[in-house]
Specification:
Distance between the termini: 65 Å
Bound molecules: S-adenosylmethionine
Strand content: 15-25%
Shape: elongated
Strand order of the largest sheet: 4-3-2-5-6-9-7
Largest sheet: 7 strands, mixed
Helix content: 25-40%
Radius of gyration: 21 Å
Order of helices and strands: HEHEHEHEHEHEHHEEEHHHH
Number of helices: 12
Length: 288
């Protein structure tokens, strides 16, 4: 069967099933073979791998994954796509399609069932409206995932990879970098999709750390402090933390912690590294 990366085949399939694209599901299907090859290469998919794909659409990336991997679990929310996937993936006996919302799926159970609980690779052209919840669920849920290679909005990829002191640096950069090493593998223009998205895209690979790069007594408290620090970007760190209803520390306590760390009273959150956020958290909320 001709691959769906051929735009003619995609058009033919969509017409045959009278498929109507749903904006609310972030449906922009890939129609460029080079980009698909780049995704497979960035994810380093081999015949040893069990891959979880989020949002297979009509199966374009799934066809490439099925050829490269041992087996593929593809989770799709849109019921109109399920009969299409049955046809476009008919040649592959190593793909399981699951009709579900990925945010409500018990991924741990799926990985146990299909890969004996061993780490899987997640590979996807993500629906952009839920990029952050999907990635944070994978990481914070401590699921057995060795890497996540995904197409996301270009700006989001830049935020994930940004370092301290840059305009893109924020809570997302720190959350992602606590769990993984980010690497932008390719930038992808709108004409590689059908329909074309209004934004640029990028393929980013997040390779899971074996263990987090910093140690902190209370991980949840650190993420609360990080989020509060970037809520009001222009304010000093002291004011941002003090104004946050989630953080019950006095100005004096925060100033004392900054002083102990050798930081200025007027420092802003965007100047702090992950190590410094961990140290600040231990000073403010750590075990005695
Ligand atoms: N993988 C296909 C491709 O590359 O051509 C389609 C990618 S498209 C950007 C995103 C896909 O995710 C769509 O098929 C959409 O229906 C699906 N999707 C959206 N929200 C979802 C959710 N919560 N759970 C599972 N799939 C979802």
């Amino acid at each position: 069967m001709e691959k769906l990366s051929n735009p003619q085949k995609t058009i033919e399939t969509i017409k045959k099933y009278e498929f109507a694209f749903q904006k609310k599901f972030g449906q922009n299907f890939l129609i460029d073979g080079h980009v698909l090859d780049k995704i497979i290469a960035a994810a380093e998919v081999t015949k040893e791998d069990c891959v979880v794909e989020i949002g297979p659409g009509i199966g374009t990336l799934t066809q490439y994954l099925a050829e490269a991997a041992r087996n593929v679990i593809a989770i799709e929310i849109d019921k109109m796509l399920i009969p299409i996937l049955q046809e476009t993936l008919a040649d592959y006996d190593n793909v399981t399609v699951i009709h579900q919302d990925v945010l409500k799926t018990d991924l741990r159970e799926l990985v146990r069932e299909h890969n004996e609980g061993r780490p899987v690779k997640v590979v996807a052209n993500l629906p952009y409206y839920i990029t952050t919840p999907i990635i944070m669920n994978l990481f914070e849920g401590r699921l057995p995932v060795s890497s996540v290679t995904v197409m996301v909005q270009k700006e989001v990829a830049q935020r994930m990879q940004a370092g301290p002191g840059t305009k893109d640096y924020g809570a997302l950069s720190l959350a992602v970098q606590y769990f993984a090493v980010p690497y932008i593998a390719a930038n992808v223009p709108p004409n590689c999709f059908m329909p074309r998205p209004r934004v640029g895209s990028a393929v980013i690979r997040l390779t899971r750390h074996e263990k987090p790069p910093v140690e902190v007594d209370d991980e949840q408290a650190m993420f609360q402090i990080i989020r509060a620090s970037f809520n009001q970007r222009r304010k000093t760190l002291v004011n941002s933390l003090h104004n946050s209803p989630q953080i019950s520390k006095t100005k004096e306590e925060i100033l004392r912690a900054l002083e102990q760390m050798g930081l200025s009273q007027t420092v802003r959150g965007e100047a702090l590294t992950l190590e410094q956020f961990a140290a600040l958290t231990d000073l403010l909320c750590g075990r005695e």
